[in-house]
Model the fold of this input.
Amino acid sequence: MFIIMNYVCSTMENFKKLAGERDVVLFGAGEGCMRFLNRMDSSSLQSVKYILTNNRRKIGGALYGIPIASPDLLQSLDARKTLAVITAKRAVVEIYKQITQISSCPIMVSEILTHPVFAALTEDLYIHQEELRQVSDILYDDISRKVYSEAIRRRMLYGTCDFSDLMVKNDIEYCPAFWFADSRPENEIILDCGAYNGDTLKKFTRIYGPKLKKIYLFECMPQSLKALEEIKFRLANQAYTPEITIMPYALSNQEGKTAFASMDADPTASFVLESRSLAKTDLYNREEIQVSVSTIDRLVPKEERVTQIKMDIEGSEYNALLGARETILRCKPKLAISLYHNGEHYYRLPLLVKEMVPEYKIAIRHYHRNHVDTDMYCWI
Done:
C-alpha cells in the first residue's frame, strides 16, 4: 500500500496559520534551528514551546529562552495540538521516522518552508495523495512500489537527501533487465528524446548492436546538435551503425517556436521555459533562446514501427507524450520516461500512459544518490 507522510502544506503562510492554532516543537538545536528562529516574526516565535535534539549535551539547555529537551517529550504532547518542524540540516529522513514513531502530529521541514521550489513541489504532492495512491496500486512489482513511495516521501521531506538505498544495482538506465528477460528484440527503432551529446546513443548502440535498426535523436540545443553530428560521423566508420536521424526540435503537443533556457552550469538541465516553475528557473544563470517545437506524431513517419521511446526532456515529458499519442497507440512501444522533473509528473505521467494503453505494465526505478534519475518504464 502506498503511504504518504502526514505532511502539511509547506508555505510560510500556511505555517503561520497552523502555528497560531498549535504548539510548535522544533527538532534540531543547531545552526538550522537558529536560522529558522531568526526568520520568524514575534508572534510565530511565541508559538515555539520546545526544541528537541538527540544531542545529550544540549538537553536541559535553552536557545533564545526556549527549553531544549529529549524527543521523548513528544509522547506527553497532544498530537492534535502540536506541529513538529524539522530544523536539522542532516538526517532529515531519519528524524522524520523518529517523530512518527513517537507522535502522529503533522510535520514540516524548515528548508522546504523557505525554499520556493521545494515548497511548490511538496504542496502539490500533498494535495494529490489520491492520485499517488492510484499510481502505486497499478505498479508492476514491489520494488516499484517501494521506490515510488520512498522517492516521493523524500522529495517532500527534503529534495537533496540521500536516495542511495533506492538505486538499482546491476542495471542500465533506459534499458532495464526485466525488458529482456526472454530475448532481445530484433529491428529496434528508438526515439531518443533529449539526446543531449549522444551519451544514450552510444549506450543504445552498445546494448542492441546490430539489432538496433534506426534511431531518431531529438535535441534542440545548438551545442548538443553539433556534438550529435560529430558522433554520427564517428559511428559511420564502425562495423555496424544504425540509421541515425537528427531531429532539431523541442518536443511538445503543438508546433511553433518556444523559449528555451540554455543552462551554462549544467547543459543537461536545459529546458523549455514553460515546463518549469519560474521560481526554479531563477535559481540558475541561463541564456534564453528561441527553438523550434513540434510533436512526435508529426515528425515520425506513420509507417515507422517504433519499438522504444526514451524521454528525458527536463519537465516537458507530459506535453511530449500528448504529442506522441498516435505513435504510442499505433506501435505500443516500450517507454523509458524521466519522472522526477516536476512534482506533478509522479502521478500525471503514469496515469496518462495507462489511459492511453491500459495493458501497459508500469515499473519505477531510481539511478542516482539524490533525487534525480527516477524513471518510469512501460511495456506490454
Notes: Residues 265-271, 276-284 have pLDDT under 50 and may be disordered. The CA atoms of residues 80 and 105 lie 6 Å apart. The radius of gyration is 24 Å.
